C-alpha cells in the first residue's frame, strides 16, 4: 500500500471548491432572483446546489482517512486520537450554535435556531473519526448498509415523506421545538434540514468518504471509479421508490451524491496530483471552516446592521439590473462575495495562517 501522510492538493482543492460553492449559493444579492441551479430543490429532487453539502461531508470522511488512518496503523494511542476528534467535533458544533445565536440577537425577525450546517459537520466528523479509529472496513460497510436501510425503514414506518408531517420533521420538532429552521404558519409544525435524525444518513455520507479516502491512500483509482458509478446507479434505482431529498437526506440521496463526489475526487486526483494541474480552490480548502464560518458571520453582521440591502442595490442592482436583469445582478453579488473571501483566504495562505478548530 502506498501510504500518504502528506496533504493531497486534490483533496484540499475539492474541499475548497465545495466551500466556494457554499458561499455562492448562500449569498445571492436577491433571494427572489436566483438561477435554478443555485437553488435547492423545493422538496423531492436534486439540483446542483443540493450536491454541495453532501460533497463537504464526503470530503470530511476522505480527510479523516488521510489524517487519522495512518496514525491508527502506526499504533498511535486510540484514546488520544478519539479525544482530539471529539473535541474538534464539539468545537465545530459550538461554533455553529454561536453563529445561530448571534443571528437571533442582531438580525431583524430572526428566530433562535439550534441545528445547523456546522453542527451536522461536527457530529459527522466525530462519528466518522470514531469509525476510523476503532473499526475495520467490513464493520464500516456494514454500518453504512444498516444506516441506509434502517433510515429507509424508519421513514416508511413514519407514514409520509411530506413536509412537516414526516417522522424526521416530527422528531426534530419534538426535540428542538420552535428552534428549528422553519415553522409552518398554518399547522404550527416545524422542520429543519439539518436536524438530529438526519445525522444518521449524513454519517453514512461521511463513512462513504472514509472508504474512498482509504482507496485514495492505496492509489486504487479503479475501485474509486467503479464505486462512484455503482453509487450513482444504486442511488438512481432506489430513488424510484425512495425519492432523492436533501431536506430528509434520504438513503437514495446519500448514494446519488456520494457517487458524484467519488467521481469528482477521482477527477481532481488525476488532474491535480498526477498531471500537475493547478489546485484551484486549495486556499479555500486549507481554511475551510474559517471561510464558511467567517462568511456566515459577515452576512449576519451586514444584515443585522442594515448594510446588506443598500450595498447590493447601490453597488450591483442599480446599474446591472437595467442592462442585464435582476438575476445577473443577484449572481454578480454572490460572485463578488466569493471573490472577497478568496482574497481573505489567499492572504491567510500567503502568511501561512491556517485556523483550525
From TrEMBL:
InterPro entries for the chain: HGSNAT_cat
What are the Heparan-alpha-glucosaminide N-acetyltransferase catalytic domain coordinates in residue numbering? 7-226
User: What highest taxon heads this organism's lineage?
Assistant: Bacteria
Which Pfam families does UniProt cross-reference here? HGSNAT_cat
Q: Does the keyword Membrane apply?
A: yes
Q: Keywords in alphabetical order, please.
A: Membrane, Transmembrane, Transmembrane helix
TM helices/strands, residue ranges: 51-69, 90-111, 117-134, 141-161, 224-241, 253-272, 284-307, 327-348
Q: Which PANTHER family match?
A: LD22376P
Designated name of the protein? Membrane protein
Q: Which organism is it from?
A: Dyella japonica DSM 16301
Taxonomic path? Bacteria, Pseudomonadati, Pseudomonadota, Gammaproteobacteria, Lysobacterales
Amino acid at each position: 500500500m502506498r501510504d500518504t501522510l502528506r496533504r493531497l492538493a486534490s483533496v484540499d482543492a475539492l474541499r475548497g471548491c465545495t466551500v466556494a460553492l457554499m458561499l455562492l449559493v448562500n449569498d445571492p444579492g436577491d433571494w427572489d432572483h436566483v438561477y435554478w441551479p443555485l437553488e435547492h430543490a423545493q422538496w423531492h429532487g436534486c439540483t446542483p446546489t443540493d450536491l454541495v453539502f453532501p460533497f463537504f461531508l464526503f470530503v470530511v470522511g476522505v480527510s479523516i482517512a488521510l489524517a487519522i488512518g495512518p496514525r491508527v496503523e502506526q499504533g498511535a494511542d486510540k484514546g488520544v486520537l478519539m479525544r482530539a476528534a471529539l473535541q474538534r467535533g464539539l468545537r465545530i458544533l459550538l461554533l455553529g450554535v454561536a453563529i445561530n445565536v448571534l443571528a437571533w440577537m442582531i438580525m431583524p425577525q430572526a428566530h433562535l435556531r439550534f441545528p445547523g450546517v456546522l453542527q451536522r459537520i461536527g457530529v459527522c466528523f466525530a462519528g466518522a473519526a470514531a469509525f476510523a479509529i476503532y473499526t475495520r472496513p467490513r464493520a464500516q460497510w456494514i454500518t453504512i448498509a444498516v444506516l441506509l436501510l434502517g433510515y429507509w425503514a424508519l421513514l416508511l414506518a413514519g407514514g409520509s415523506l411530506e413536509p412537516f408531517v414526516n417522522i424526521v420533521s416530527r422528531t426534530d420538532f419534538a426535540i428542538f421545538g420552535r428552534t428549528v429552521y422553519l415553522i409552518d404558519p398554518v399547522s404550527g409544525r416545524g422542520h429543519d434540514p439539518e436536524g438530529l435524525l438526519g445525522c444518521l444518513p449524513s454519517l453514512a455520507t461521511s463513512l462513504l468518504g472514509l472508504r474512498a479516502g482509504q482507496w485514495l491512500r492505496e492509489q486504487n483509482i479503479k475501485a474509486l471509479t467503479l464505486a462512484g458509478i455503482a453509487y450513482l446507479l444504486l442511488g438512481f434505482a432506489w430513488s424510484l421508490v425512495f425519492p432523492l431529498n436533501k431536506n430528509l437526506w434520504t438513503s437514495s440521496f446519500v448514494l446519488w451524491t456520494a457517487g458524484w463526489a467519488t467521481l469528482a475526487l477521482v477527477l481532481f486526483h488525476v488532474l491535480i496530483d498526477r498531471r500537475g494541474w493547478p489546485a484551484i480552490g486549495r486556499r479555500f480548502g486549507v481554511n475551510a471552516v474559517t471561510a464558511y464560518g467567517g462568511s456566515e458571520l459577515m452576512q449576519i453582521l451586514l444584515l443585522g446592521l442594515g448594510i446588506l440591502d443598500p450595498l447590493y442595490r447601490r453597488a450591483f442592482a442599480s446599474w446591472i439590473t437595467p442592462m442585464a436583469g435582476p438575476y445577473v445582478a443577484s449572481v454578480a453579488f454572490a460572485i463578488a462575495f466569493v471573490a472577497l473571501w478568496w482574497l481573505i483566504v489567499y492572504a491567510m495562505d500567503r502568511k501561512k495562517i491556517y485556523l483550525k478548530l
